Amino acid sequence: MKAGDPHRPTFHFLPPANWMNDPNGFIQWGSTYHLFYQYNPSAPLHENIHWGHAKSEDLVHWQHLPVALAPTPGGPDARGCWSGVTVDDQGTPTIIYSGAVGNRQRACLATSSDGLLTWRKDPRNPVIPEPLAGLDITEYRDRSVWREGDAWYHVIGAGIRDVGGAALLYRSSDLHHWDYLHPLCSRDELDPDSVMDGPMWECPDFFGLGNRHVLITSVWDAKRSYAAAAVGEYHAHRFIARVTRKLDHGDTDFYAPQSTRDRTGRRIVLGWVQEGRSIAAQMKAGWSGLMSLPRELQLARDGWLNIRPVAELESLRAGWMRVGPMNIPAASRLVIEKVCGDALELQLVLRPASGGRCGVAVRRSPDGEEQTVILYDADAGQLVIDRAQASLDPDVRATTHSAPLALAQGEPLRLRVFIDHSVLEVFANDTLSITTRIYPTRDDSQGVALLAEQQSARLLQLDAWPMASIWTATPV
Ligand code: DQQ
């Protein structure tokens, strides 16, 4: 890693240097969380993909461990060890990943006998050598594996010509011999306007949650990619989606998420947050990509999900500031002098006006030349992150993100905003998140301001905390 990059986050997980993408093999083994990830140890570019590895006792502070999987020249993963999962096979930690050769990716196994540190690839790899005869498969990789009754089940992400994305279901008694059953779910079974769309579903993740099941997929499309989830029912080994939405509204900025169920029964998910700056800038920085904050998923009363950052993140709060209540007059911007920084958590409770837009600007220069604006648009019923002025650098992504958010009569807007240098994660009313990247150029773009446009709004309360680095606090 090159020192002094002002865009490098300090309370998000990322490798010491070079490239990372998808989270892989996320599991709690004993008390310890193990997080693997798609990793290129030689450059900040997506090639030569290994499995990086880290562990944590609290989902916040991570310790880097040696690479878990590397491509074997001439082997079934010669082009890369692509995404997969870790399962507990009667006490043996077992990775099932996608071995890439040429343009094909096939299921491969590896096991560990030293507590998930080193891994032995199975000589019989790949364990599912070819996709299915009889289905016109365009893409085929990534997986979710679980134990059900006395069998293993395995869904593989796929694209089927003239159908679109699909999650194909297999069964095995031993993780080595797999019988294809049928699609667990495919695009043609969903509403035509469902966001679980696209020609291919990458990184399927399937699990029970309360009395429902959830299928997460990464909708892969040449024009737009994003993570979506469906909450529904699972009967006779088929999934019937009832409510389908984006899992995060930052689109490509939160991709390929993977979840695990921890010992306390929580379902925790995290995703890959990719860069929004040029390849040349990534090469110069010497690193690319990071992991989102871990989020807990719970079933919500409306049939969708509650999405909240895990409670352990509160241990990073260093100091506390409170502002409000106060009015935010129409057409005003109120700078909150005592709250500023590039590593912050903000918690806001706002009563928006019944029409017009209000919100908070972050990473704001004193003259407002640079600022990223998080707005609630009451007329449109949308939460918006406007990056038009986020950076003076013309080479960074500056598109606007938006998410539908209808507030009930009298319901305040409740935001949790995490600012970590170039990373911005916004959680609203426990029901949605928007994750994105911002690259302010000015050293003084550290300010926070409240704003209201057409009509006045009211700040009920703002709590703010500078956030400690996860690398300097007591490591595991
Ligand atoms: N990334 C992996 C694939 C997966 C994609 C390759 C999603 O297994 O489909 O690095 O970002």
Any descriptors?
476 residues, mainly beta, 1 helix, binds 2,5-dideoxy-2,5-imino-D-mannitol
N- and C-termini, Cα separation? 22 Å
In helices, the fraction of residues equals under 10%
**pLDDT under 50 segments (min length 5)?**
none
**Contiguous helical run count:** 1
User: Structural class, judged by helices and strands?
Assistant: mainly beta
Distinct ligand kinds = 2,5-dideoxy-2,5-imino-D-mannitol
Shape: globular
Biggest sheet layout:
7 strands, antiparallel
Radius of gyration: 22 Å
Name the average pLDDT.
96
Share of residues in strands: over 45%
Strands, count: 35
Structure commentary:
- This protein is an all-beta fold and 476 residues long.
- The chain has one helix at residues 279-285, and strands at residues 18-29, 32-40, 50-56, 63-69, 80-89, 92-101, 104-111, 120-121, 137-148, 151-160, 164-172, 179-186, 200-209, 212-220, 226-235, 238-246, 255-261, 267-273, 287-288, 290-291, 295-299, 305-309, 321-323, 326-328, 332-340, 343-351, 357-364, 372-377, 382-386, 401-404, 413-420, 423-428, 432-437, 447-452, 457-466.
- The longest helix has 7 residues, at 279-285.
- It is globular and about 65 Å long.
- The two termini are 22 Å apart.
- Bound molecules: 2,5-dideoxy-2,5-imino-D-mannitol.
- 2,5-dideoxy-2,5-imino-D-mannitol is lined by residues 21-22, 38, 49, 82-83, 98, 141-142, 202-203, 218, 255-256.
